[in-house]
Amino acid sequence: REGRRPLIAGNWKMHMTHLEAIGLVQKLVFSLTEQELDAAEVVVLPPFTALRSVQTLVNGDQLAIGYGAQDLSANDSGAYTGEVSGAMLAALACGFVVVGHSERRALHGEDDATVAAKVRAALRHGLTPILCVGEGLDVRRAGQHVPHTTAQLDAALEGLDAGQVEQVVVAYEPVWAIGTGEVATPDDAQEVCAALRSRLDGRFGAATAAVVRILYGGSVKAANTAGILAGPDVDGALVGGASLDADEFARICRTA
Ligand code: PEP
């Protein structure tokens, strides 16, 4: 994968109090060697309420992992009760933020315009957006998964320049594979990741397409990681359920 460092990101979803988060990060980091943490970039994405604790632990002990949030507001401040801004996440030294996760799209009505605004908000504050795209089962059955996901990519990156797009991580997460135990085949993952990269090439140029990391997400476990990551356009994984178990997540990171 031509110099793109593999990225393994753990989306904890709505799990882990701040105290549990500290325990999980400690267990994770101490089960990986320095060499393993160097070979792959390891990132945890706890709930907002645990970010301060994770920051204190990671930065205080200079642990070689990254962290970030699962969502952010498209707005920078104001009367948006319950929302958290990119500025607030940047102040906690977050490196990453998930944008457009399928659960946000499905359960919180986030459309392409909202997702695009959130990508911009992340970039404004120096956060790396992990932009999620992916088709539902009906779209997959109709054989429309490539046009569907490339259209989501286009919409989310609308109006950005190549330099901005190079700051983005893309995650291909077929909705039918998220939390279902049903994992895409390595060929399915590679097909869509390659199509997304080719789309980036067409719109932003080959140099940009060559540096953007494209992850696969959807029921990734240690046992299927090697197969998924064998695809030359698959640069890592966004891991949900399996990231809550330190030993299992460490095995995934080690495989990468
Ligand atoms: C996710 O939430 O991004 C995800 C891929 O979940 P899981 O690994 O549990 O399917």
UniProtKB/TrEMBL annotation:
InterPro entries on file: Aldolase_TIM, TIM_sf, TrioseP_Isoase_bac/euk, Triosephosphate_isomerase, Triosephosphate_isomerase_AS
EC number: 5.3.1.1
Biochemical pathway: Carbohydrate biosynthesis; gluconeogenesis; Carbohydrate degradation; glycolysis; D-glyceraldehyde 3-phosphate from glycerone phosphate: step 1/1
Keyword Isomerase: yes
UniProt keywords, alphabetically: Cytoplasm, Gluconeogenesis, Glycolysis, Isomerase
CDD domains in the record: TIM
Subcellular location: Cytoplasm
Coiled-coil region list: none
Primary role: Involved in the gluconeogenesis. Catalyzes stereospecifically the conversion of dihydroxyacetone phosphate (DHAP) to D-glyceraldehyde-3-phosphate (G3P).
Similarity remark: Belongs to the triosephosphate isomerase family.
Protein name: Triosephosphate isomerase
